[in-house]
Design brief:
This protein is α+β, with helices and mostly antiparallel strands. It is about 60% helix and about 15% strand. The protein contains 7 helices and 7 strands; from the N terminus they run αβββββαααααββα. A 4-stranded mixed sheet has the order 2-1-6-7. Strand 6 and strand 7 form a beta hairpin. Helix 2 packs across helix 4 and helix 2 crosses helix 7. It is elongated, with a radius of gyration of 23 Å.
Length: about 240
């Protein structure tokens, strides 16, 4: 009924807002993305408006070093940063994303093959134990342990296969310009802008001592879910 790409973006949008809180109409459009460079701590969104004040004081604050940013200042800086590089980023995105998806696929396939080999080893152990009564007597829980291990590996194997299939489908249909080229950043509502920022950015490091951004880490836009899955197996398998 809808394209693979549109389904992916729609599904991802729902998941992003589940992960980052339900209050998507909040003025804190960078909530969960800002980090204090020196403390390595996520900045918290805080309303510091005094009672009976006619003016709002909304800030992002590091709970460790107590440094803070006014939301308008950091929002303007990020939007200007994004706007200045928007069309150049669109031009490069299609080619870069296709290459990155290909690399992700290769490593996930390696991970899948490792799982498959582990599963084969467990099946061989089961067969050995079934034909070795003396081994069974030494460990009465062997069938339960192997069953649990086998179940976990099968689930992980299915998940890896699902992501590989997902990448293959997206690889055939991805064109970044068609997705984002019509967006006018300055005209987006807060919830729309927050969705875009959650899609594009992994984190934004703030160097309070020098009073500036020092690093913006981008997602494999618009495929955050694939990036998150890859990073979860990357920490365990590809270090």
């Amino acid at each position: 009924i809808i394209s693979v790409l549109l389904w992916n973006i729609t599904h991802q949008t729902v998941e992003l807002h589940k992960q980052n809180g339900k209050n998507n109409k909040s003025q804190f459009i960078l909530r969960g993305l800002l980090y204090c460079y020196h403390c390595n701590e996520m900045l918290t969104a805080k309303n510091e408006t005094p009672k009976n004040s006619n003016k709002e004081y909304l800030v992002y604050r590091c709970k460790l070093c107590k440094h803070k940013l006014k939301i308008n200042e950091i929002h303007d800086e990020i939007i200007n940063e994004l706007s200045s590089k928007w069309y150049m980023r669109l031009m490069n995105m299609s080619e870069n994303v296709v290459k990155m998806l290909s690399k992700r696929k290769i490593n996930i396939e390696k991970y899948r093959n490792e799982i498959s080999n582990q599963l084969k080893e467990i099946i061989l152990k089961e067969e050995f134990l079934l034909n070795s009564p003396e081994a069974v007597n030494q460990n009465n829980n062997w069938d339960f342990i192997l069953s649990i291990s086998k179940s976990k590996l099968k689930k992980e194997l299915s998940k890896a296969n699902s992501f590989i299939e997902h990448i293959e489908l997206l690889d055939k249909h991805f064109q970044a310009n068609q997705i984002f080229s019509l967006l006018k950043l300055q005209h987006l509502q807060e919830a729309e802008l927050r969705t875009l920022l959650l899609t594009l950015f992994k984190s934004i490091q703030i160097d309070f001592k020098n009073g500036k951004l020092i690093y913006i880490e981008y997602n494999l836009a618009p495929f955050v879910e694939i990036d998150q899955y890859f990073e979860s197996i990357d920490r365990n398998k590809f270090n």
